[in-house]
Amino acid sequence: MKIEIFDKAGNEIASWEVDEETCNRFKALSKEDIVLELATGIAVSLKEMGVDLTFNVIVNEWGKVVVCGREIDLAGNSRL
Q: Out of the domains of life, which is the source (predicted)?
């Protein structure tokens, strides 16, 4: 089971393996909450490395995310 992030051109820009418990936690969330969780985690990790990016800057680079097989298309989605 894994989490994958793709850019708007469909290129994978990040992926990592997750355990079943993590997948189950994400499955219980709405699409908006999944994106929020992922972007917030990435923003915090980047900030710890000295890179300060906002949620919107991060998400604007994403075309879609796939979380444990659940695909969330972000291209053109202004609600997030």
A: Bacteria
Residue 5: C-alpha distances to residues 29, 50, 69 (Å): 17, 22, 12
Q: What is the DSSP letter of 11?
A: -
Tokens of 4: 């994958």
What pTM does this model have? 0.86
> Taking Cα atoms as reference points, which of 74, 79, 78, 77 lies closest to residue 13?
74
Q: Rounded distance, CA 76 to CA 74, Å? A: 6
The candidate with the shortest Cα–Cα distance to 56, out of 33, 34, 73, 40, is 40
Supply angle C-alpha 4, 7, 9, rounded to 5. 125
- Chunked into runs of 10 residues, the chain (80 residues) has average pLDDT values of 96 96 96 95 94 91 96 74
